[in-house]
Amino acid sequence: MVNKSELEAKLNELQKWFQENPKLPQEIDRNLLKRFLKCMNCDIEETKQLIELNYSLRMKNPYIFLDRDPDDEAIEQVQEVVDIVPMPGLTPDRCKIICSRLVEHDANKHDSIEECKFFFMLSDSRFTMNDVDTEQDSSTNENNSDSDSVTELDKMADGDIQVCDATGYTLRHVYKVSISTMRMHMKFLQEAYPVKLRALHMINCPSYMNKLIAILKPFIRDDVYKLVHFHTNGLDSLYEHVPREMLPEEFGGSAGKLADIKAKWKEIVKEKKEYLMDEKYWKMEPVQTSSRWSWFS
């Protein structure tokens, strides 16, 4: 990586480029800019390309990325029927765990478009913050002999690990999904998301899981599909990959109840309302590009 002075120089160069680019929004949150830079291993030119692709996809899907309000009734409903919860802290290999599950199993109560919108609202809120708390920051600094090498990037995850509880999912849920939204969602995650996906763990998989995956697989690149792990016989196999103590109680862990952690994130998203709805951070002219990136490993 880079030391503090090199990081600041790169960030300042990127911020100047961003603000002078007429096809990008007027503003970008500094922490989000760091996320982009870290995701591309501090390569300035590759970071610029990723940023342009990210905002281009946003502008092509304004119903997800522009028309959004944390206090909207539909978004409130989403939070009643699903859990999408970033867990506290980072794993030993510096990944953030994101847990998700159905709260309400009735497929008629789910709206895939609004759930997609909420996921990205939550992500955009998270990306303005660090992924480790003050104690972890202190521990990192104490354990690093070269304090100048500890930068703001060290406070952010090297990647995400998603753990999805498949309990209650049926073919009916899949058939209700908006195909265009699913296609966009997966394209954004696989090509424009400012965090690397390290693994996706599916737990409590039903016997018909292969049928569910068959429907979704056309939207998943082969290199990404290799990161998917299916756990069909209990959770012991999950604990071989993910620290049990960092999982919620509902997943057999000891990191607290999902409802409590979810409530904190709900407040964070509400606090970010002005930021999420301010077009100067999101609106731009579409950028035509055929380039692709991949940082899944």
Characteristics of this structure?
14 helices, five-stranded mixed sheet, 297 residues, globular, alpha/beta, Phosphatidylinositol Transfer Protein Sec14p
- Principal-axes geometry comes out as globular
Rg from alpha-carbon coordinates: 19 Å
User: How far from one another are the termini?
Assistant: 18 Å
- How helical, in percent, are the residues? 40-55%
What is the CATH class designation of the largest domain? Alpha Beta
Mean pLDDT: 89
Q: How many helix segments?
A: 14
Q: Strand arrangement, largest sheet?
A: 1-2-3-4-5
CATH fold category name of the largest domain: Phosphatidylinositol Transfer Protein Sec14p
**Structural domain tally:** 2
Q: If classified by CATH, what would the architecture of the largest domain be?
A: 3-Layer(aba) Sandwich
Question: What is this entry, summarized?
Answer:
By secondary structure, this protein is an alpha/beta fold. It has helices spanning 4-20, 30-39, 44-60, 62-65, 73-81, 112-126, 134-143, 171-175, 179-191, 209-216, 222-225, 236-239, 258-271, 273-277, and strands at 82-86, 95-102, 159-165, 197-203, 228-231.
Describe the structure.
- The structure is a single chain.
- This protein is α/β, with parallel strands linked by helices and 297 residues long.
- The protein folds into 2 domains: 1-60; 67-144 and 155-281, 3-Layer(aba) Sandwich (Phosphatidylinositol Transfer Protein Sec14p), CATH 3.40.525.10.
- Helix content is 45%, strand content 10%.
- It has 14 helices and 5 strands.
- It has helices at 4-20, 30-39, 44-60, 62-65, 73-81, 112-126, 134-143, 171-175, 179-191, 209-216, 222-225, 236-239, 258-271, 273-277; strands at residues 82-86, 95-102, 159-165, 197-203, 228-231.
- Strands 1-2-3-4-5 form a 5-stranded mixed β-sheet.
- β1 and β2 form a beta hairpin.
- α6 (112-126) packs across α13 (258-271).
- The two termini are 18 Å apart.
- Residues 134-149 have low confidence and may be disordered.
